[in-house]
Write a structure and sequence with these properties.
Layout lengths: L3 H16 L1 H19 L10 E7 L2 E8 L1 E3 L4 E2 L6 E2 L4 H14 L24 H5 L24 H8 L16 H15 L3 H13 L5 E2 L13 E4 L2 E4 L5 H8 L1 E3 L1 H12 L6 H7 L18 E5 L2 E10 L2 E8 L4 E7 L7 H15 L2
Antiparallel strand pairs: 1-2, 1-13, 3-4, 5-9, 6-9, 7-8, 10-11, 11-12, 12-13
Length: 363
Amino acid sequence: MMHFKQYYPLLLLLLITICCPTRIISAQRLEARADSLISSLFKDPNGPGGVFMIAQKGKPIYRKAWGKANLELNSPLTADNVFQIGSMTKQFTAVAILMLEQQGKLSVKDPLSKYLPDFPNGNNITLHHLLTHTSGVQDYLRMKTLPTIMQKEMTPEMVIDFFKNEPVNSAPGEKYAYNNSGYFLLGYIVAKVSGVTYQDFIRKNILDKAGMHETCFASDRQVIKNRAYGYHKKDSVYVNKTVISYDLAYAAGALMSTTGDLLKWQNAMNRHLLLNSEETQKAFTRYNLNNGEAHNYGYGWQFKDIKGVTVREHGGSIFGYKTMGVYVPGEDIYVLGFSNCDCNSPTKITEEVAAIALEELRK
C-alpha cells in the first residue's frame, strides 16, 4: 500500500517546479554566473583560495569555497573556515559605540577630550568625526615609523601615544579620509565607558547576543578551529603571512569570523537585536562635511550604487587576508567574499556577484 507521506517530498518539489519555474531557472543561472566569475579570480586549485556566500532574506542560497586553507597540510578550504576580516571589524566598533549611546552612557556628539583630556585638538574632534573618518587625525597605519612597533605587545594607551602628536591631515569635519586611528580611539572609548576591555564588551554584548560562536579576536598563538591560514605571494611563490601584533589592529581590524557568523551579524542588525531603530539609522546615514557636501561613509558602513541600487558595504585587508561584504537593503541580499591570500582581493568580484544576484533574484 502506498503512503502519501512517502511521496510528499517528491510531490512538493514537483509543485514548486510547476509553480515557480522562473525562480528555479534564475537560481541556477545565478549559481552558474557566480561560479564563473569567482573561478576567474581563484584559478590555482593548489594555492590559497576564497569562500563566497550569497544570502537572501536571512538564509544562505549559495556557499562555496575554492583553493586551500593550509598549503603545508594541503587541506581544502570549506565554507566554514575562519578568516581574519580586517576592517570589517569597524562595523562592530561602531555598533558598540551606538549601544553605549542607546544606554545613555555617551553621545556621538561628545568631544574626544571627554575621554582623552590630553589628546591634541580633542575639544574639537567628536566621536561622530571618528566614526565617519572626518577627524583629520593621522592614520597610524600610514606612519613611516610603524615597522618599529608592528610586532610589539602594546596597551591601547601605548598605541595612542604613538600617533596622537602626529601632524593632522585636516580640520575636523573638513574632509573624508579613511582612518584607522579614529576607530582605534573608539575602541579605547568603548573600554573606558563600559569598564571592561573592548574585546570583552564585543564578546558579551554583540557576539554572544547574535550567536556568533565562531567569531573571535585574532591570535597567532591561540588554537582556532577551522582557521584558514593567511598567505602572501612573492613573485610566483606563496609564503606565510607576516606576523604582527594584533594589539595594533584592535578595534580597527582584529576580528576573525566565518561567512555564517557574519550572516548572523547582518540578521541581528536587521532584527534590531543589538540596536533600536533610531540608533540603527545613525549607522546607515550618509553624512555631510562642514561645507555641506555629502560623503559615502556612515558609522562603520560605506555606501555605493550597484545597478542603480544603493548598497551598504565594507571590506577588510590585513596581512594574509582580504574580505568584502555587500548588503542590498531593499532586496535583503547579502554577499560575502573572503580570501586567505592578500594577493587576491575579493572586493570587485563580491560587488559583481551582488550585481548578478540583483539581476537574477529580482526576476
